[in-house]
Each structure stands twice: as structure tokens, then as C-alpha cells.
Amino acid sequence: MRETQNSRWGRLALVDAAVAAWLIYDMTTATEMPGRALMIMQYALLIGLLIGLAGSLYKVMQQN
After folding, report:
1. Cα Rg for the chain, rounded, in angstroms?
2. Predicted local distance difference test score (pLDDT) of residue 7
3. pLDDT tens digits, one per residue of 46-55
4. Interatomic CA distance for residues 42 and 6, integer angstroms
5. Contact indicator for 35, 9 with CB cutoff of 8 Å
6. What is the structure's pLDDT at 6?
7. CA-to-CA distance for 38 and 57, rounded, in angstroms?
8. HSE of 56 in the Cβ direction (CA atoms, 13 Å)?
9. Which of 6, 32, 37, 44 shows the greatest Cβ crowding within 10 Å of its Cβ?
């Protein structure tokens, strides 16, 4: 069975949202201050995830 483009983008948006939520939770509940390199990497990953989430949601809305 072939999946529709809309369901693929919807699934991708769901995965992006779940990973972004996990990363935000992980960053806010850290018990000690991470190193500078790790902090930069976490924020860069979070920005990329949020951009990907916005793009996926845009594609889902555009195809409806």
C-alpha cells in the first residue's frame, strides 16, 4: 500500500515534535551545567528540529 505524502509529512512532524520536546526536557532538567561545546550542539540541534517541524507542518497544511 502506498502512503500519501500528507501522512509522511505528518509522521515527520510528529517525530520532530517528540525529539524537540525530549531535548527541551533534557536541557531544562539537567542537574549540572554542561560544557560549552555540548550546550552549543544542543541549541543548534534544537533550532534545526524546530525549523524542520515548522517545515513539516507547512507541507501538511499546504497539501490539505
Report:
1. 15
2. 81
3. 999 999 999 9
4. 29
5. no
6. 67
7. 28
8. 17
9. 6
First to last CA, the chain: 21
Given this model, what pLDDT does residue 1 score? 41
Residue 29 parent element (H or E): none
- Grid look-up 509522521 returns 11
| Predicted TM-score of the model (pTM) | 0.80
Taking only the tens place, the pLDDT of each residue in 1-33 is 455 766 888 899 999 999 999 999 999 999 999
Buried b (16+ CB within 10 A) or exposed e, 17-30: beebeebeeeeeee
For residue 52, count other CB atoms closer than 10 A to its CB.
17
How many domains are contained in the chain? 1
Domain of residue 12 covers: 5-63
